[in-house]
Specification:
Structural class: alpha+beta
Strand order of the largest sheet: 1-2-3-4
Strand content: 25-35%
Shape: globular
Amino acid sequence: MARVKRHALASLAGALGAATLGALGGCGGTSDKDAITAVVLDVAHHPTSLCTRHATPDLLTRAGGLTRCLTAATAPTAQEPNLRVISVTVTGDSARARFVGKDGANTLRLLRLGSDWKVASVGG
């Protein structure tokens, strides 16, 4: 739980999107990669978006629920305005996004739920 908060919220700083996502195109296409990059950047710039829009239900549960997630996301260290996405790999309805932030390189695992990409885990 502490690892999820530290890496998913503080290190990703709003790090786990930058825009509201619309319907996504075909599997693995450029639109998927763009949408995933948007999710990662939104979380980096607006950490509470991980809790309110971009986390899978399982990740939110592992983080201790919405209230704990929001508490971690509002910490002064949570925002990560200089985060850079370095690669996105899509395989069907799952994806991995590698990024570099203030704590170095890390990876997010995302799942497609309906038409949206959601952050499932950090660090693998």
